[in-house]
Every structure is written in structure tokens, then in C-alpha cells.
Design goal:
The chain crosses the membrane at residues 12-31, 37-56, 68-85, 91-112, 133-155, 161-181. This protein is mostly helical and 194 residues long. The protein contains nine helices and two strands; from the N terminus they run E-H-H-H-H-H-H-H-H-H-E. Strands 1-2 form a two-stranded antiparallel ribbon.
């Protein structure tokens, strides 16, 4: 297996676009949660990151990187779908928070793996620029989307705005999964003869 840098950079740009769009939404989703849950979640996150770091020697390879990246994106797709089916429930807010914490546990690992597998300065520079550009674009699009809902349809209820945004997030996350799969290429092992 090998990583295709140009495709991967595109994937990360759209991934960051998704993240930028969610910035304001999580505050509305998490409003139902008790502040102590965030403290507990932070503890679980830190312990999870310690456990994952312990296994770097085993999982810092391209195949594991691909599979963990896929896992993170499938979790995100599941969270978006969950919110679309049960948007205003306490259990949904709790599951969305827990799901985000699970994906954040792999954050340091994914950044380390990116640096190892895309170890050229120019590619890393393009990667970080794509991430920041995508993030900024996502925040801008979500701001415009919320304003369009208010100005065009007079939808001022924040919960409804976030619900409608999740349809855009669903489409974006499906695109992200497609781009991720296209960022890796299976390489056939050739038998060596002597």
C-alpha cells in the first residue's frame, strides 16, 4: 500500500472544511450536557491518547494508518447520521460528544503518521495549507449557511439551524470517505526470483 500525496492533500482539505463547518454546531448540540461530562470526557480522552501512544510501534505503519483513518471517518459519518435521526435528545448529545472524543484520541497518532508517510517539506507545507484553507472555508460556509437560513427562510432557532447544517455535513462526510479511499493505493507484491 502507498499513499498518494496529491489525493491525500485534497482529502485533508475537505476534512478540515467539515471541521470548520462543525465549529459552531457543537455548542448547540452540547448545550444539553452537564459541564462535569466535559471534565470526565477530557480524562477519558487523555487516557485513550496514552494507550494509543503506547502502541505506536505496532500501529505506525501505512496499513494501520489507512484503517484508523477510515475508522475515524466512519465514526464521523455515524455521528452525523445519528444527529439527523435523533437531533434534540440528551442521549444524542452524549453520543456525539463521546464519538468526537474517540476520534480526538487518534488525533496525535494521525498527525504523527502523516509526518512519517509524507515526509517531504514541500508536501507537508501543502498539506498544512490545505488544512487551514479548508478550515477557514468551512467556517465561512457555515456562517453563510446560518445567515441564509435567517435571512432567506426566517429560521432563527439555533437547534433547527444546526439540524439543517447536518444535511450539508452528511454530503461532505460521504465525499470525505470517497477522497480518503482514493488517497491510498494498493501495491501488488512481486515475487522475487533468483
Amino acid at each position: 500500500m502507498r499513499i498518494l500525496p496529491r489525493n491525500y492533500i485534497g482529502y485533508k482539505g475537505v476534512n478540515s472544511f467539515f471541521t470548520g463547518m462543525t465549529v459552531g454546531a457543537v455548542f448547540t448540540i452540547y448545550a444539553a450536557l452537564d459541564p462535569s461530562i466535559f471534565s470526565l470526557g477530557g480524562i477519558v480522552l487523555a487516557v485513550g491518547m496514552l494507550v494509543i501512544a503506547k502502541f505506536y510501534e505496532t500501529i505506525l505503519n501505512l496499513r494501520a494508518f489507512y484503517r484508523i483513518s477510515l475508522l475515524v471517518e466512519w465514526v464521523m459519518l455515524g455521528l452525523v447520521a445519528l444527529y439527523l435521526f435523533r437531533p434534540y435528545a440528551f442521549s444524542t448529545a452524549l453520543l456525539v460528544y463521546a464519538g468526537y472524543q474517540v476520534t480526538f484520541m487518534f488525533g496525535a497518532y494521525l498527525v504523527r503518521a502523516e509526518t512519517l508517510f509524507l515526509n517531504r517539506k514541500r508536501i507537508l507545507s501543502w498539506l498544512d495549507m490545505a488544512k487551514q484553507t479548508g478550515y477557514l472555508a468551512g467556517m465561512l460556509v457555515s456562517w453563510l449557511f446560518y445567515k441564509m437560513l435567517v435571512w432567506g427562510w426566517h429560521i432563527e432557532d439555533h437547534a433547527r439551524q444546526v439540524y439543517y447544517l447536518h444535511w450539508l455535513l452528511l454530503v461532505t462526510e460521504i465525499l470525505i470517505l470517497r477522497l480518503l479511499v482514493r488517497s491510498f493505493e494498493k501495491v501488488e507484491q512481486r515475487a522475487t526470483t533468483r
